[in-house]
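Sequence in, structure out.
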Amino acid sequence: MGLPEKQYISAEQYLETERIALEKHEYYQGEIFAMSGASFRHNQIFKNTYIKLGMKLAGKPCQPYGSDLRIHIPSNTLYTYPDISIICGKPEMTDTIKDTITNPSVIIEILSKSTYDYDKGQKFTLYRDIESLKEYILIDSISVRVEHYSKNEDGSWTLKDYRTIDDKVIIETIASDLLLSDIYADVFEGEPEA
């Protein structure tokens, strides 16, 4: 007995069903993938980071958006929902419904056990096809660690790795920074030490 045949759908079919779905799904090359829920730590990191970015960018041309904003990468077909996207300038929409953008300048993903390998590997490979993307930031929810990738003029990427609570991530695209002590505020409190 063989495996069931995969059912492929068009991007138009995906968007039609996604726009009325109760849960979020990624789309890639004709396949749909359910997105998992997030832990308390993940949500705390998101809240801390999103609030800090919102305060720092108030009234400026670059603005942060949460995980309900879908992005699309036309060159490789991916539709997905980054934890935080920063868009500089006017958002470029895919259609008149205006719920999917194509021009994030910075993407921030919060890593969990289930997304760790994907976010660092294949997803980052797909994100690199976004012409407007200048920085990719991965925040670990298991331990204090932030990986910050910056795009160089030749298209290569440089990694800076932060592992102490006193570190500061400089986000050049928005001429601002994020303190790890702010990102991880109240994230590990009340938990037993390992």
